[in-house]
TrEMBL record:
Residue span, Cytosol aminopeptidase domain: 308-315
MF-aspect GO terms: manganese ion binding; metalloaminopeptidase activity
Listed name of the protein: Cytosol aminopeptidase
PANTHER family: LEUCINE AMINOPEPTIDASE-RELATED, PEPTIDASE B
Presence of the UniProt keyword Acyltransferase in the record: no
Family the entry assigns: Belongs to the peptidase M17 family.
BP-aspect Gene Ontology terms: proteolysis
One protein family per Pfam: Peptidase_M17_N_1
GO annotation, cellular component aspect: cytoplasm
Record organism: Erythrobacter longus
Alphabetical list of InterPro entries matching this protein: Leucine_aapep/pepB, Macro_dom-like, Peptidase_M17_C, Peptidase_M17_N_1
Keyword annotations of the record: Aminopeptidase, Hydrolase, Manganese, Protease
């Protein structure tokens, strides 16, 4: 993971390059205080105060920087990211402003994935000084969680299979004193039959498993976090085309979100009894692969007719959500790279969110909007439950018409969550196809900060 701990430091009056934050409307007034040469320099850089723009202004033997923002008094999560991306190595200080949550974007702009290839022409760290360094520790933790998601998702399937996800669980358990139970291979047939069916065709080194971490006081409210851990998805016997398979290393993105969120929860000492569950599998093709037309048993007791082996994520989540429900949690949140329909509906910048309770959905939207991570709510309409009817089983895993794919997948999961439990489902892309300042191309978290800030508000630390 990119090292960011030393990028935010206490301001003790040490030498630093000044950063002036300028709005487009305030640029003319600011420019009047510049020398002719400085004004000419900004003009040559075409800097006029547009949000996200960056300028470097000569000043004696050095320089100062200017950054365009929408509102210097209300900095957003990514408003300093372009500065952190484009400024040279050095130490910086904001003039007449404190960074607050903009620290998050400053930090994530430093992210690099260099496991397999060294960065070309690397730029050294850009350190930001603040008088409120103690308040920044939470944003540093959030940036580290975001970068963990990126690292896990960016890592190819051969190095991020079920065993690697188990290793991440072991790290979490050791760091936070949590209990970990792992059920793998043929042991899954009894308690997690759908996880077993989806993962049984994989090579021995990628045996399926269910990872279950418990942490916190036993008398605290129970919170369950569930993540889809399909470490590679070939589509199974309903095989994907090559183009559709290319990014399937990211199909464990839900697990990455769940692991990162659990780390935030335990690191902050949230007053909950946490259950973190990830079914980790590879949806492979070999003799034991499950087939279209098969009817699978489930932990809940429902039988599931397989219409499409490429709708496997909801199967493994069904068993995991059933197990989570057995703890009688106050809240379940699951994350899954579940449907292409969600991407068609919302594009790559929003996580599709479905929720049983309006107040929980509203709290997540509010928290996400305040922290640059707004989810978009999709419905769980009763009218579409009939799409999952089967002639020979309790339910099918994929409906045959082209309508409401994300919502119908959510309705499938809803059948495996105990009635009355507050439940939220994130259908997350976990991938950014185009870079933006502070948001690199590749693995990305969606809904993570929204969930974290909602949970802090709800449960306290």
């Amino acid at each position: 993971m990119t090292e960011i701990n030393d990028l935010i430091q206490a301001d003790r009056g040490q030498d630093a390059v000044a950063i002036h934050l300028i709005t487009k409307a305030g640029f003319e007034a600011f420019a009047k205080g510049l020398s002719a040469g400085q004004h000419a320099s900004l003009k040559a850089q075409k800097f006029e105060g547009d949000a996200g723009s960056v300028g470097i202004v000569p000043d004696g033997d050095g320089f100062f920087a200017v950054g365009g923002v929408g509102d210097p008094a209300n900095l957003g999560s990514y408003c300093l990211a372009a500065l952190a991306t484009n400024l040279p190595e050095g130490t910086y200080r904001l003039v007449d402003a404190q960074p607050d949550d903009a620290v998050f974007g400053w930090l994530t702009a430093h992210y690099r994935f260099t496991r397999y290839k060294a960065e070309e022409n690397p730029v050294g760290p850009r350190i930001l000084l603040t008088e409120q360094v103690g308040r920044m520790s939470g944003y540093v933790a959030e940036a580290q969680a975001e970068m963990l998601v990126r690292d896990l998702v960016n890592t190819p399937a051969e190095d991020m299979g079920p065993a690697a996800l188990e290793a991440e669980f072991k790290k979490l358990a050791k760091e936070h004193g949590a209990d970990l139970k792992v059920t793998r291979g043929d042991e899954l047939e009894q308690g997690y039959p759908m996880v077993h069916a989806v993962g049984r065709a994989a090579a021995r080194k990628h045996d399926p498993r269910i990872l279950h971490l418990e942490w916190g006081a036993k008398d605290a409210p129970v919170l369950a976090i569930v993540g889809k851990g399909v470490c590679f998805d070939s589509g199974g016997l309903d095989i994907k085309p090559a183009a559709g398979m290319r990014l399937m290393k990211k199909d464990m993105g839900g697990a990455a979100h769940a692991i990162a969120l659990a780390g935030l929860i335990m690191g902050a000492g949230l007053k909950v009894r946490l259950h973190l569950l990830v079914p980790a599998v590879e949806n492979a093709i070999s003799g034991p692969a499950f087939r279209p037309g098969d009817v699978l048993p489930s932990r809940k007791g429902l039988t599931v007719e397989i219409h499409n082996t490429d709708a496997e994520g909801r199967l493994i989540l069904g068993d995991a959500l059933t197990r989570a429900s057995e703890e009688k949690p106050e809240l379940i949140i699951d994350f899954a790279t579940l449907t292409g329909a969600a991407r068609v509906a919302l594009g790559p910048d929003y996580a599709a969110m479905m929720a049983r309770r309006d107040e929980t959905a509203d709290a997540l939207i509010k928290a996400g909007r305040a922290n640059g991570d707004e989810p978009w709510r999709l419905p769980l309409p009763d009218a579409y439950r009939e799409y999952l009817n089967s002639d020979i089983a309790d339910i099918v895993n994929a409906h045959s018409n082209p309508y409401a794919g994300a919502s119908v997948a959510g309705l499938f999961l809803d059948r495996f969550v105990e009635e009355g439990i507050d439940w939220v489902h994130f259908d997350t892309f976990a991938w950014r196809p185009f870079p933006k300042p502070g948001r690199s191309k590749g693995g990305t978290a969606y809904g993570l900060r929204a969930s974290w800030h909602m949970l802090k508000e709800r449960f306290g630390s």
